Amino acid sequence: MTMTPSSASAVPLAEAAAGGNHRMLTIGLFVGFVAVTLVITVWASRHNRTANDFYTGGRSFSAAQNGLAIAGDYMSAASFLGIAGLISLVGYDGFLYSIGFLVAWLVVLMLVAELVRNCGRYTMADVLAFRMSRRPVRTAAGASSIVVSILYLVAQMVGAGSLVALLLGDGHGSAQTVTIVVVGALMIVYVTFGGMKGTTWIQIVKAGLLMAGAVLLTVLVLVRFHGDVNAMLHTAAQTSGKGESFLRPGLQYGTSLTSRIDFISLALALVLGTAGLPHILVRFYTVPTARAARRSVMWAIGLIGAFYLMTIALGFGAAAVLGSDEIRASNAAGNTALPLLARELGGGGDSLGGVVLLAVIAAVAFATILAVVAGLTLASSASAAHDLYASVIHKGRASEKEEIAAARLSAIVIGAVAIALSLSAQKLNVAFLVALAFAVAASANLPTILFTLFWRRFNTRGTLWAIYGGLVSSVVLVVFSPVVSGGKNPLVSGVDFHWFPLENPGIVSIPIGFLCGWIGTMTAKVPADPSKYAEMEVRSLTGAGAY
User: Where are the membrane-spanning stretches (predicted)?
Assistant: First the structure.
């Protein structure tokens, strides 16, 4: 068909009008969700009278509610947008991320959930300091928790800015800057006024929206292919340009020994790091009993497992419906695959259905980011106030009122630091921050938790060596890895000072964390107190004396 000049000019005008409608609708949904979360925050602020209310929501949540909140906390924008986008670009290898994220919860369920709930009160440091010298251990644990949380915060906030800039069609970066500041300001408000109760309900609402959005897109994808999953997979393989290799391992990680070891390293960080993430650990204190903590993890596993199964349909469906080239042209990392898929399934960019569905999915992604950053800020401010201010600086003599005030001030300071770091990192590849957060959690936090719970001889020196050894080794190895210099998309261009060949340090730094804990314990002059270990063992297994 020959296109006349008038019809040719009508196409971009129609697209521009559709784009404008999409942006206005997206902004309207963003504002609507923010308004709902602020109402929740105001309601929750009326119930924050004690430290127990602020840190744990009064331990009043049921297992189902906490499971929803855990799922909402864990399924970040990286899960919703990143994994589906990665599957749409590299096929089978992208789904391996889903497996790592899901298997991690088996470690949490079997080794951490009940025991941490019985031994702790508000933070991870409560568990580690139970039978150790409290001040140095709380200092180390608090510092590690804050480092992990801030790394994760910066990654989420920069990702939020990039996502909103893409969805709103802003090519100058102003939307990204505004989004970072708005997200940072909102997370400070949520934590300062809402505490754990407000944060939890925001995460519950977000989890419901996320699951509803994922189910809707999955159903629409399957309807497009008349329920024939094989047809969808073969179409995805053809439109990917990779053929049947799209459905087999090797596209992302290749066949070289280094790439395979790098994948194993990443998998170790993902599987083991979850059990050491501070914002996940604090969720076990929001339920009344250890049994409820275990059941909440089972709820979370069910929800997270269902979600990651849907990422198969969403990722391969995006490749089949759109084609990998179109997705890559929009965003090289594939982060816009789901919004593009939603627009296409709704009827296309010039249709009302396409505009509405795209705006809804964009709003769900924004809600996902807000809920995650609220949980991260609360975990880091709790560590700063409860571990460092109340226990180390004031040696346990601070009143509850002073501690809550310190937690709120900490949320403001940490939020400001995260905003500043995110603004300076807008143009950088921040994928390494997520990998580093998981690697630090797996290298520094997990060894100390497991040794504390299960090794009778473990002592204060071993705890400090494990935390600092895992923290320093993971950071140093990333600094001298291809992620920072010498790689495909390095943080620092024009120079190459890397000597560590892997992008994720987990396969090296995690054993270093365990080894440092063992060496520190075996070389300590002051042995562990066997009576304190016996008390912890009884308490962790039975719940006797738990808060």
Answer: 26-45, 66-89, 95-116, 137-155, 175-193, 205-225, 263-285, 297-322, 355-379, 405-424, 430-453, 465-485, 505-524
How far out from the chain centre does Cα 154 lie? 11
How many whole angstroms separate alpha carbon 439 and alpha carbon 431? 12
Residues 119, 540 contacting (CB under 8 angstroms): yes
Are 235 and 100 a contacting pair, CB within 8 Å?
Answer: no
Sign of the alpha-carbon torsion through 215, 221, 227, 230: negative
Helix (H) or strand (E) holding 113: helix 113-119
User: How far, in Å, are 108, 304, 319 from residue 112 at the CA level?
Assistant: 5, 18, 38
Q: How far apart are CA 51 and CA 407, in angstroms?
A: 9
Task: Count other C-beta atoms under 10 Å from residue 508's C-beta.
Answer: 18
Select from 120, 114, 284 the least CA-distant residue to 200. 284
> CA 44, CA 28: separation in Å to the nearest integer?
24
Q: Which stretch of DSSP H or E encloses residue 63?
A: helix 63-74
Largest Cα–Cα distance in the chain?
88
Residues contacting 162, CB < 8 A, separation 6+: 176, 335, 426
| Contacts for 536 with CB less than 8 Å, ≥ 6 apart | 119, 130, 131, 452, 453
Between CA 14 and CA 109 the distance in angstroms is: 52
Measured torsion, CA atoms of residues 430, 158, 345, 215, in degrees rounded to the nearest 10: 90
Tell me the pLDDT of the chain (547 aa) as tens digits: 333 333 333 333 334 344 555 667 777 887 888 888 889 888 888 878 888 889 998 898 999 999 999 988 888 766 777 788 888 888 888 887 788 778 888 888 888 888 999 998 899 999 999 999 889 999 999 999 998 988 888 878 877 777 777 666 665 567 778 888 888 898 899 888 889 999 999 999 989 988 999 999 999 999 999 989 999 999 998 888 888 888 888 777 776 888 889 888 988 988 898 889 998 889 999 999 888 998 999 999 999 999 988 988 999 999 999 988 888 887 777 777 888 898 888 887 677 788 888 888 888 887 888 888 888 899 999 999 999 999 899 888 888 889 999 999 999 999 899 888 888 776 655 555 677 788 889 999 999 999 999 999 999 999 999 999 999 999 899 889 888 888 777 777 788 898 999 888 999 999 999 999 999 999 998 888 899 999 999 998 888 877 7
Q: Are 29 and 362 in contact (CB under 8 A)?
A: yes
Rounded Cα gap, residues 105 and 483, in angstroms: 27
For 78, half-sphere exposure in the C-beta direction (CA atoms, 13 angstrom radius) is 21
Rg (CA), the chain: 24
What is the distance between the alpha carbons of residues 260 and 252, in angstroms, rounded to a whole number? Answer: 10
Torsion 424-429-435-439 (CA) sign: negative
Q: How far is CA 316 from CA 235, 246, 364, in A?
A: 9, 10, 20
